[in-house]
What does this fold into?
Amino acid sequence: MTPEVLTLSETPWLFTAAMLIKVIVAFVVTLLIVAYATYAERKIIGRMQTRLGPTMTGPMGLLQPIADGLKLFFKEDIIPSQAHWFAFIIAPIMILAPAFLSIVVIPFGADFQFTYDGTLYAVPLQITDLNIGVLFILAMAGLGVYGIVLAGLASNSKYSLLGGIRSTAQMISYELAAGLSIVAIFMLSETLSMRGIVAAQQGPLWGLESLSFLPNWFIFSQPLAFLLFIVGSMAEINRTPFDLPEAETELVSGFCTEYSAMKYALFFMAEYANMITVSAIAATLFFGGWAGPFYGWINFLLKVFAFMFFFIWIRATFPRLRYDQLMFLGWKVMLPAALVNIVITGIAILLW
Amino acid sequence: MGVEQSKTLGSGFITTSLDKLVNWSRASSMWPLTFGLACCAIEMMATGAARFDLDRMGIIFRASPRQADVIIIAGTVTKKMVPVIKTVYEQMPEPKYVIAMGACASSGGIFDTYSTVQGVDEFLPVDVYIPGCPPRPEGLLYGLMKLQDKIRAERNTFGAAIGVGDVIHNEA
Amino acid sequence: MITVNHYLLLSAFLFAIGTFGVLTRKNAIVIFMCIEVMLNSVNLTFIALSRHVGNMDGQIFVFFVMTVAAAEAAVGLALMIAFFRNKDSIDTDDFNMLKW
Amino acid sequence: MSDQKIVEKLKAKFSSEVLDVVVYRGETTVTVKKEQIVDICTFMRDKLGYNLLCDLCGVDYMGKEPRFMVVYNLYNITTKQRIRIKAPVTEEDASIDTVSTVWGTANWHERECWDLMGITFNNHPDLRRILMPADWEGHPLRKDYPLQGPDREPYQGRLS
Amino acid sequence: MFKEFAKGLSITLKHLLPGNSTTVAYPKQKLEMSPRFRGLHRLVPTQHREKCVACYLCPTVCPAKCITVVSAENDKGEKYPEVYTIDMLRCIFCGYCVEACPVEAIEMTSAYELANFKREDFDFTKERLLRS
Amino acid sequence: MLDTYLPILVVMGIAFAFAIGSVFLSRLIGVKKPSEVKLAPYECGMPLIGSAQERFSIKFYIIAMLFILFDIEAVFLYPWAIMFKRLGVFGFVEMGVFIIILLVGFIYVWKKGALEWE
Amino acid sequence: MEAILFYLTALVAIVSAVFVTQCRNPINSALNLITTFLCLAVFYVMLESPFMAAIQIMVYAGAIMVLIVFVIMLLNLGLAVKTRYTHGLAGGGVLAAIILLLANYFIRAGEATGTGGEITSEVIAKYGHTELIGRAMFVDFLLPFEIASILLLVAIVGAVILSKREV
Amino acid sequence: MAVNNTETMTINMGPQHPSTHGVLQLILELDGEIVVKATPHIGFLHRGIEKLSEHRTYHQTIPLTDRLDYLAPMSNNLGYVLAVEKLLGMTDEIPERVQRIRVIMAELTRLKSHLVWLACHALDIGAMTVFLYCFRERENITDIYEKVSGARMTSNYFRVGGLSADLPDGLEQEIRTFAESMPAHIEEYEGLLTGNRIWQKRTIGVGKISAEAAIDIGITGPALRASGVDWDLRRDNPYSGYEDYDFEVPVREGCDTFDRYKVRLDEMRQASRIILQALDKLKPGPILADCPKIVLPNKQDVVNNIESLIHHFKIVTEGFKPEPGEIYQSVEAPKGELGFYLISDGSSHPFRMKIRPPSFVNLQGLPQMVEGRLLADVIAVIGTLDIVLGEIDR
It folds into this structure.
């Protein structure tokens, strides 16, 4: 019996309920991961630095993110008098909302099947499957830039302005590189839908039975694209070694220098939310999404966590690039490399 | 702080629990400003380093005063530096706390000279003094815990947060 | 039921607003933004009609309009910056080529 | 080349300028008149190889005449030798020519000397206060300047 | 290039393994002070009084001038400090007072938990110093 | 249409509500003791030197401008990429010409030194 | 449902477009313009052209507007408040009104005809909008596509020359 | 709206800034990211140590020198104590054991100072883990400090004519273990930094200063040696018996941040070598010179011997009085030449003490090194100059 797909027109209540459950679960889980990503980062980096990380707030310091959040919530909120108040307030919102919106198109598991009223229904474990899924994410990434531009512009402080300009230039440069690097993936998958891309990665590697011990994940066909994507997205979400905009040692706190209380917390959360999104995209595009030995979403979460660990690990190890080197890397190395990768992929597909 | 009882939210079970919650969050997440002046700054760094690890207490240094809760005056305060410290302190959001770390910051210490301020308390409301020249990292940690005690003993913090009355500081 | 006429009317509104802005504002950047509003209203017309007619050509045209808009933005804003560096102003009143 | 020979060379070149030569604990101190200090220093650097100006400072001999002394501690990196040159400066005309043209390092040293001691350096490119705030009054290292500043009593312990 | 990156990453990863932490969890665990550690002062008592004979060597040698001594004579004609106060906020813990004391009447303990709320809390009078 | 896009609206609503809500709630409660100094821009504690109204290097602009033009290229690439296997060699040549023409511009920019920072 | 969405979005689009022309501060104009673009993207989705919606956001909101905001930031016009109007308000208003009336007249006078092309909702659902765009673009509109690249090339060269010029 | 046609902006870095290493203020004129002009402003930590020393006895001045370069207190102690000994003319009377212990402690101090330098330098460039690793080793040195002198930082250990106390039992072994383990730790830091492409990119060719310019500005210490000038006071004007040890003076020709980094790392290796040699040569012996008018007598003697008691009272209350004269004594502190110019007028207080702080002079080279470079290079150069405001402002 092939399962029915829920639609709004035929089973409105069931559809709405399923949608709301998915939305709320995804949102809450993302929020939780965001909160505990900060904790995990402090713990892991702490251990790597031969110290302990938070231990005294709650058992093993587990309540630390909550204490931080609460404290920031009750802090005084400063809007500098010279600041452009509307843009100043809207900036953290503009950066957080797109970060959360990107999770909409990410598939975190295979279909969930259940029987209701005698009919077998299948609910895809994905909030919605757009057939332009990846473009949606890229569009949201594009919108995320505004948060930083506005924060820099509205604060009317030199550090913020410099940080804002720096990071805007950085984000757009690497958005381009990351955006171009995944074109090769679409050439292989022939779809922009995230779910379609995961489906394209099923089966043995390159369809060869002799390689059946390896899954057909795009990491094997597109290692260069993966490298470019990871580096590009690390730069786009301002993680070390590309954390120049908030480079403490240069620009105090960069674009969020003037931000206090909850608005600052939103910037903080956006950084980690972006990290989750990027990890999820990388897992989906290159590592077969939810495919793996365990039950769907567990595989997916494991892959996401592995990527996040990798980002944290990088942060503990590497120094920071300089601005001109960053631009050099983005424009003169990654952009041409992405184009070359497209050409190579094209030739390979034509010859195959 | 002579605040009349009527200006608080009262001392019901819920308000005191809320106060406790607020105090707990403030005490568990004191972010000091990265602000080193002299010798004590090095001990402050050492306190943040692996052996003593301030991060255990949820303390991470913030570079911008907008995100800081505590300013640790670590070192000699000179007359040239006073306006800077005042400005930086002013620019921190409420509630904010001051720790005078070391003899120089607390009282001028050995530097009883023309250019040195004889204690930062001449122009900032110091919450905790830590003697020592410089204090051991444990001394600083003890001072920070004293400050936590002080924060925990505050009353009407929730009330003050929602605009009813002021915070009442108790003697810890 | 929303028909193509609704979209056409809406885009007419947007176009008129854009025109008004272009004609009345002084700040070159705002004028530039008003032109973008006008271009977008035209894009909306194209897509609405393309869907109405059942032909992709209109949408492809929008694609090219976007390309042109991007090129225009790049060059136009570069002009504006060059002008601003000379005159410290981007008021259209100050656009006086003879003095430049 | 021993210190003695160096002093002889200096004397040969600037016979009328050298006021006094003292050797104490193996260190040679040459006192010269302040008028030709730049020429002397250039000579020391170019002809005698004292390419490093280790230190430049002022000393206040309050009550003596002349009151101030500007001290140049020189070092020769090649021969690893030190020599000290001193130039007296009177209180009435507390000024001396700058040697920042000879050694770039003298720039800040002279600023500091002016700031703390009140000795003016003629032709100095940027003679501002360096350690004290720009609006400070007085020159703290002078002997007549009280340690605690003019407006404060010294701390005497707390009798409480 | 990648080799060096991998080397750096392996160093950090190696430290992630358990057993590499060097943290002393302060309030629970405490380091043992060296016997020479210069902490809070202590006036050494003898049977019925303090050992100090109020010779004024310590206030003289103190670079921070934080010791106040007022001497007096008791009924036996012995000199003793009527007032002996150390302003602990001024003190720089240099240990000169201990070095200068001819009768070993003052010594430095390993107490370092001295932080307090008010300036007045740091007047260490004779009684407090004897107790510490 | 609504089937696929309604969830986006819902998430958008939740995300914005969360962000705006937390900002405004925190602004609503929370002590407010503004003072002139507190509201002045942060400048390492020193009085302001000049204002933040100063101008920046043109190089940042060139970066942004190049981004636009290459973003358009990327936008052309996406439909091409998913059509690639169906378009075959023809599509490859077509896009090759397109990319080469753009690369000429890129090389021009490179040679002009617009991407140099020093 | 669809109608409500349409009218709501249309309202937001028109109001924000009006704000674009009326805000004193270019930054506010820019923010409003972004809102207008987002509304148009919603319309494109309603017109079953999701790919157009995506690139509307990517190109207009994500690139062109970033450039504009960037220029505002670079020139620091963000906080400068200037006189708003130059030309006759009345003249502009009259002209805009005439355009509006004319357009209104023509739209209401004629019936929308010429339907019946091959691209229907079913076709879009079957093949996907992006594929259709790709097919049209790379098969039917080959020449304009290549010309677009030349246009972009010229824009690159022009912008670099203009902005690198020593003044 | 303020109109200025220059396309530069002025930003203010410090005094409250995470990477100005204290309270340095830099006013930077930027064109985009490029620094057009850098003006250091100092004096935010001017505490008047020179003036204060004129009001304290020679003995009481020792704790003041601790607080000059607070990263390397014992080097300052050593310089000052040597200067006073020279003024007193008792340089040759210092017992051998004292000399050896002084060298051990001075080299440990060099390690301590360089560790903080590396920590901060790495942190400035973004490698925060190195910061923690360096402080982990620094804790070992502070432990040794505490065991030997009783304080972690402001040691106040050296005395005119000797030391305040002998090494405690078992410390020799501890120092030896530490010095032997140090090269391995340095390898660890190098593993995280030296080969890393990002680190190389950030440091090679950054903040160049030629040997001539460096000498003209008066830059000394590792910064000068990285510019190719082979000059080290420990070898060229030896003091405290440095001539007995076999060590190399690392010199590099690159003149840039990377070479300054490498020179300091090599110095750390050499420092552990010197420590091990000094430990080998360490023999039991007195820890104070035999000059009853200058050094405090043994506590036991004070109680038992009336003559000692009188000396004790005299030295404590009046201090010793060098004959009038002036001397200049310098040592190779971790940051460069640390000089003390002392003038005595025959009283028990220094008539004038002028300190030649290495950082003060080295900082003067900053504008030359950063102008025309990028903002991020300013951070790297400040880090590599290894400045300490305590001794710059005094």
